[in-house]
Amino acid sequence: MLKVILQGHDKFYGITDIVRMFFGDISEDRDNSCVTAGDGPDLTLVNTLEKDGRSFTFTSDGGRRYEFDGPAIEPGREVKRSLYMALSDITGIKMPWGCLSGIRPTLVASEEGSEADLTGKYLVREDKAALGFETAKEENRLLGFIPPEDLNIYVGVPFCPSRCSYCSFISQDISHHMKRLGEYGNALENEIRTLAPFITRKISSLYMGGGTPTVFDDAQFASILDCIFWNLKIDKDCEVTIEAGRPDTITISKLDAMRAHGIGRICINPQTMRDETLQKLGRRHSVADVIRAYEQAAERGFDVINMDLIAGLPYETGDDFVRSVKRLIELGPANITVHTLYKKRRANMSRETVLDRDDGRGDVDAAVREGYRLLYEAGYHPYYLYRQKDTGHGLENTGFAKGDTGCLYNVAMMSDARDVLSFGAGGMSKRCFEQEGSSSKHRVERCPTVKDVLTYIELSGEAARRKAAFFEL
Ligand code: SF4
After folding, report:
1. 402 and 271 part of one domain
2. ω into residue 211 within 30 of 0, thus cis?
3. Pocket test for ligand 1, best of 212, 279, 388, 397 (most atoms within 8 A of CB)
4. What's residue 167's pLDDT?
């Protein structure tokens, strides 16, 4: 078992993040100032923070000592860097993003201002430093189109026709909850109607996501769109995106309902263009369904179609992933988002399955690099990027866009610099305040909505009133 003793600091969060990059079965013992990894080597490391703000990590027998020979960084990052150096040396594994463990490496790129700083100070690999820096510039450019005084709206539908094996977002008890879908739609409309009269701020972007918002039947889907557009007074300048993730839920009637409101952005997410993988993941649709849905949406004039892929899926190799990228490039959607499989706590798929490097999937990192190369070659560029805990192989999720088609909502939401009002169960509303004298330019206050859909159905009016108070409407 690996044990990391914290000396001179209590930065458990960052230390745990670094240990988690390399090992699982993590636990924190705050009384004894240590973090352990049950599947790590039998070794004790001491991670220090000195009075001068520098950190070093050493083996408890004094045999090895790790200290960065270069510019100091903020203390919370110093302790992570020296521990990363130790664990990287002990395991022989270098992470693509070096000692950056946060979900938004583009924020660090913006703060630092050069690729050389990312590689030099944070040990980020050169290709990731270039990606982070380029994406940060595009994120900041797009953020400039979203006035800070505007609201951005999220409408959440946490239901899907079946549960993908890698997903923990949707409840295990999906079949039981599906019986309450109609009531959920009514509750959502109730929350929107209750809060809408108090909203006077302009709405820059609206994103209806999930789950799968197109899981509703045709009539209820159209009714919810009507409720959103009429009550929230969505104008033609507002960017509206509907996540129609599962192609088996997309009908001509729903596409027409969206177009009738002028909606031009839709997400149709295959995750892979390989039928065998789709079946094994429990997605209950085929590649032919994806292509049919894409063509129907394109024929109806949706000018920005986003398609998501996941790299590192089990049941397929890196070559399969690259073939999926090529198939999507042939189809030609305006946006392609490349995710790397990551492990969430309650997914059916185990952490070992997600992170295992030796199970025949090949080199996921190399496959992602080849996928990116093909996307650049086809005229796409990265416009937003984020990472998740336990992302396989230490990689990232990157949204690519052709021309000026990047999704403003995605940028607003990830920036933590724009307010987001979230309707629906499990939504997280947030207000962002500028602040001086901190490494983070914004302070964020959050207002969660109850996750349990049955409780939400009962209390959607109450959820609206809480948000009115939170936003001081
Ligand atoms: S479609 Fe998305 S939200 Fe729904 S079960 Fe699959 S991964 Fe989860």
Report:
1. yes
2. yes
3. 212
4. 80
Instruction: Report the relative pairing of strands 304-311 and 203-210 from DSSP bridges.
Output: unpaired
The answer on 339 and 211 residing in a single domain is yes
Return the residue whose CA atom lies nearest to atom 2 of ligand 1: 211
**Residue-range definition of the domain harbouring residue 30:** 2-93
Q: Which amino acid type is present at position 282?
A: G
Residue pair 128/382 in contact by the 8 Å Cβ criterion: no
Report the side by side order of strands in the sheet with 43-48.
26-29, 34-37, 2-7, 43-48, 56-59, 65-67
Looking at the domain assignment, is residue 133 inside a domain?
no
Tell me how crowded residue 186 is: count the other CB atoms within 10 A of its CB.
16
Q: Is the CB of 212 under 6 A from ligand 1?
A: yes
Helices vs strands, H then E, count in the chain: 16, 17
- Residue 85 inside a domain? The answer is yes
**Do 280 and 169 belong together in one domain?**
yes
- The percent of residues in the chain predicted with pLDDT above 90, rounded, is 82
Domain co-membership, 284 together with 420:
yes
Query: Looking at the 3D structure of the chain, how many domains does it have?
Result: 2
Q: Is residue 246 within 6 Å of ligand 1 at its C-beta? A: yes
- The predicted pLDDT at position 356 comes to 55
Question: Can you give the CATH number for the domain in which 252 is found?
Answer: 3.80.30.20
Q: Is 440 in a helix, a strand, or coil? A: coil
Residues 71 and 176 in one domain: no
Q: Verify whether ligand 1 is closer than 6 Å to residue 169 (CB atom).
A: yes
